[in-house]
Amino acid sequence: MLKTLCLLNGTSGDEKTVRDYIINEIKDYCDYSIDALGSIIAYKKGKKAPAKKVSFNAHMDEVGFIITGITDEGYLRFSTVGGIDSRVCHDRVVTVGKNAVKGVIGDKAYHLLESDEKDKCPPIDKLLIDIGAESRKEAETLVSLGDFAYFSSDYTEFGDGYLKAKALDDRIGCTLLIELIKSELEYDTYFCFNVQEEVGLRGSTCTSFAVQSDISVILEATTAADLDGVSGEKRVCVLGEGPVISFMDRRTVYDRELYSLAMETAKNNGIPAQTKTAVAGGNDAGAIQTSGKGSRVLAISVPARYIHSASSVVKLEDVKNTRKLIRELLKVIYD
């Protein structure tokens, strides 16, 4: 399921393919609705009605590109949808538009660069997508302004239990939510598959207002910097050391009791867990926490290297341990 979800394309505002797949997976296990922005709000009956309303949340969208212009020579100008560093774009293969046209993001060859350009990464507005068209007229038969483009990337398992793919942020969270919906639950629970997280937490702003949960758990992937030459707290979090339980990021100060509960649950059940050693990034909790009457929030993330690129990397053991932690939390979070 994770492989299928990662290989689907669905940037912010273009999540239909991902949404249709998720609905097909959950339709026989819960009640669900689709809101005006396109998010899925699912409700799964458990054995009991809880005293507290609890929701689990993940976002369906991924980072990508949108076509903004076509040159006379048939190259495509583009902008990013979500936060993408231009350094991960150069020479990448992309898929463009409804016709799934293949292209390559390119710039001038190195030997043609001026001396002051050679040590600089070109900004997005200096890059172009080459789809092999010989003119604007030919390109316009294949691509339209406003078309979305996506990293073209394989789903590859490698090394000692590592996985490389695009869109692991946050198709991992979507996979875990689908698994929960298909399982037997002790308590009635809400599940929100949100749109447009990568462009300002827009989907979760609406779903959280509709659900008004007392406790909201956000399942995510988060930035790991456990790379050569990076040490101490600058690594943020580390692959292989379990799910990441955050105490604060740039959008949210997390509920202290829920943070402690998650850490204690992991410890009591022999599940490796870690926290982020930097206040960085953000996720749907930033909108959910302050929506309506407010909600207590907890973020549980899978550490991911090279996030928001064509080649994000996670360790499968971290995904398994995140799944274990969620299952154990379901036994205590309603208390």
Give the tags.
single chain, 335 residues, alpha+beta, 6-stranded antiparallel beta sheet
H/E order of the elements?
HHEEEEEEEEHEEEHEHEEHHEEH
Instruction: Tell me roughly what share of residues is in helical segments.
Output: 10-25%
Determine the structural class based on helices, strands and strand pairing. alpha+beta
Give the N-terminus to C-terminus distance in angstroms. Answer: 32 Å
Overall morphology:
globular
Q: What kind of oligomer do you see?
A: single chain
Cα Rg: 21 Å
What amount of the residues lies in strands?
15-25%
Describe this structure in words.
By secondary structure, this protein is an alpha+beta fold. It has helices at residues 2-7, 16-26, 136-140, 168-182, 202-211, 256-268, 285-288, 316-329; strands at residues 31-34, 40-44, 54-59, 64-70, 76-81, 93-96, 101-106, 128-130, 148-151, 156-158, 162-165, 189-194, 215-223, 244-245, 296-304, 312-315. The strands form 3 sheets. A 7-stranded mixed sheet has the order 1-2-12-3-13-15-14, with helices on both faces. A 6-stranded antiparallel sheet has the order 5-4-9-6-7-8. A 3-stranded antiparallel sheet has the order 10-11-16. Strand 6 (93-96) and strand 7 (101-106) form a beta hairpin.
Give a short summary of the structure:
By secondary structure, this protein is of the alpha+beta class.
Summarize the topology.
Elements: H1 2-7, H2 16-26, E1 31-34, E2 40-44, E3 54-59, E4 64-70, E5 76-81, E6 93-96, E7 101-106, E8 128-130, H3 136-140, E9 148-151, E10 156-158, E11 162-165, H4 168-182, E12 189-194, H5 202-211, E13 215-223, E14 244-245, H6 256-268, H7 285-288, E15 296-304, E16 312-315, H8 316-329
Parallel strand pairs: 3-12, 3-13, 13-15
Antiparallel strand pairs: 1-2, 2-12, 4-5, 4-9, 6-7, 6-9, 7-8, 10-11, 11-16, 14-15
